[in-house]
Amino acid sequence: MSGFVSCLGLGKTYESGSGSVEALRSIDLECGAGAFVCLLGLSGCGKSTLLQIVAGLEAPTTGSVLIGGRELDGPSPLTSVVFQDHGLFPWMTVRKNVAFNMKAAGVSAAEREARAAGLLAMTGLDGFVDRYPHELSGGMRQRVGIARALTTRPKALLMDEPFGALDAQTRGHLQEELLRIWESQRTTVLFVTHSIDEAVFLADRIVVFSPRPGRISAVVDVDLPRPRDPEGAGFMALSKELRHKLVPDLHGAPLG
Amino acid sequence: METKRVLSLLPLLALLAAWQVASWAQVYPPVLLPSPGRVAMAFVVDYHDVLVNALASVTRVIVGVSIAFVVAVPAGMLIGRYRVLDMLADWSIQIFRSVPPIALIPMALLFFGIGDKPAIVLIFLAAVWPLLINTIFGVRGIERTLIKVARVARASEWLIFRDIILPAAMPAVFTGLRLGIGGGWLTVVTAEMIAVKSGLGYMILNAQLTFRSELIVAGIVVIGAIGLLADQGIRALRAYVCRWQEGLTGAAE
Fold first, then answer.
1. Cβ of A92 and B244 within 8 Å?
2. Testing the interface with B: which of A53, A91, A142 to mutate, by most B Cβ within 10 A?
């Protein structure tokens, strides 16, 4: 099976005055259409770099990325990105923030209005359309980020630790909501996280990264039935297994 | 807010009282140091002179700063966004902004003669650098994620400038505008003492030549008052344009 998002022999090396740093080495990754794939790893293992490359924000040093069978050359109209620090424009109201990607894509004003209304309702933001981002809680802001990413009807949603800055409770709510949205939209999701529990709760497939150079150390398919219970035996067993896969990296891994 | 007004007025009232006392005590003879009352009278007697000259000065500053704004804000946005332009402009900006506009008065007179033109050019030069530098600074300070958001949304360069770079730079542009108007206002008074035959600077210098010290002080009062009004106006405008910033910045205004 060929994936909707494919990485073929991907490598990324940063050159600087003091030498070069290999951030990613020979990454091969297949991400099937409609699949929820988590990229799991500790800080500095290159998982975010990989997402940036798939988003078209950075060019790989070697190898290539295919999205929908076409080689990537800059940001693709088939993907949308949700950033960790939400990336909302502070001078735009929620309504305008959500409309921005559509404006950039040349969607007509009437169509923008209609799509935004639908997504704002779906993400529970309908009462907040005229607020500015600083008037919202962290969880609300990220809902706006997700709604905005969905407005262009992407085939793949790229999420870079989107819930990393949230408190545990808000995080849990948003994870459940994300699954609900994913099930209704049937988009492919590529989700970067350093949380094992988050990965096990969300993913069909977990890709484990290890650092220096960043590379894939394991790929684990998750066949636990949904909705998943973090207290369940299968969940706990898989978490434990993943912890062991990450542990060798704990020694000497650059944290933070 | 009310307390703030009262507190702001307090030192000014104290100054007024000290001045009244000094003129009663005749620290300087009345010919040199007029009493507040005589200055107030000057506003009545010479109101026409004061008004016409104040208007002349204000108009020059508005024209000079407006031209500076129209030039510096777009230029600053481009320099802030494109590295090549920044490298091209950096040294030149640092050199030219260090030259006080006053030092250019002789040059301006040679090029433009006596009149409005040299004054406006000097005001432009006083205002353009703070506006340019602050705009560049504002553009550079944009959160990098926001530019990434625009890139992955495949926004055109035009949309990035209009919807992201311009609003993001706005608070810094206003800082530049405040400094620019302040610099322009300082410059206009000096320029009018040398390069033009109207305006508050000209009025003050002329009053000195005719021993009308109360008109000198009246001129100074007007200069200060207009400076305060302009600054308050810009602050209010900034609060409106950048209302999305409310609660974001720590400064208590």
1. yes
2. A91
B150/A79 CB distance under 8 A = no
**Is there a contact between A105 and B153 if contact means CB atoms under 8 Å apart?**
yes
- Min Cα separation B174/chain A (Å): 15
Answer yes or no: do A58 and A108 share one domain. no
What CATH code is carried by the domain that includes residue B237? Answer: 1.10.3720.10
Do A138 and A118 meet the contact criterion of CB atoms below 8 Å apart?
no
Question: What's the number of domains chain B is made of?
Answer: 1
Domain housing A93: 87-153
Q: Which residue of B has its CA nearest to A84?
A: B145
* Nearest chain A CA: its distance from B92 CA (Å): 27
Which residues, at least 6 apart from B188, have a Cβ–Cβ distance to it below 8 Å? B57, B60, B61, B64, B119, B122, B123, B199, B200, B201
B247 to A134: CB separation less than 8 angstroms, yes or no: yes
Please state, in angstroms and rounded to a whole number, the distance separating the CA atoms of residues A76 and A85: 21
CB A209 within 8 A of CB A41: yes
Residue B147 has φ and ψ, to the nearest 5°, of: -70, -35
Measured CA to CA in angstroms, residue A65 lies from A10, A71, A189 at distances of 8, 6, 16
Provide DSSP, B144-159: HHHHHHHHHTT--HHH
Tens of pLDDT along chain B (253 residues) come to 678 888 999 999 999 999 999 999 988 888 888 999 999 999 999 999 999 999 999 999 999 999 999 999 999 999 999 999 999 999 999 999 888 888 888 888 899 988 889 999 999 999 999 999 999 999 999 999 999 999 999 999 999 999 999 999 999 999 999 999 999 999 999 999 988 889 999 999 999 999 899 999 999 999 999 999 999 999 999 999 998 887 665 444 4
Q: Which residues of A touch B (CB under 8 A)?
A: 55-57, 74-75, 77, 79-81, 83, 85, 87, 89-92, 100-101, 103-105, 132, 134-135, 152
Q: Is residue A253 part of a domain?
A: no
Same domain for A138 and A202, yes or no, is no
Q: Quick one: tokens of B37?
A: 């009352």
Contact between B248 and A152 using a beta-carbon 8 Å cutoff:
no
Domain final residue pick, A153, A177, A196: A153
